[in-house]
Amino acid sequence: LHLRKDGPPISYPGNYARYRGDGARVLRSQSTSTSNQVTASVELEQRNTSQSQNQTILSPREVSKEISRLEKSILDCEAAISETEAEIAELERELSKVAPHADVWEMSQRHTSQRERLEGQMSAWEEQTMRLEELRGMQ
Fold this sequence. Notes:
Layout: H1 16-30, H2 37-54, H3 60-96, H4 104-138
């Protein structure tokens, strides 16, 4: 049984190891939200982070595994951030030299959405980095 704050509980057949192994897939498939994949993965990451923060006793092996997972996740976040920053820089270059036939409104909307996306990525990176430092302190 998986109790959630944002919805009804989910009954999960199988043992705890199996739940931990494919719990993310089950949560996504049984979720009633229609948000996009990025939002679902961020919410899942936040759940995993809050669950792991609630665990006060972790074995050294579990700490090491979590550190490895977070390091990989942080690298992925950094790559996504630099990609988004490059896209923003390109949009800003286009906006600085607007062609007469260009749709300025659409370009500014894309710029705004990319800035918001960057803010979300930076926030996720910061949370993961703080959690990584916390885990390294536990080692």
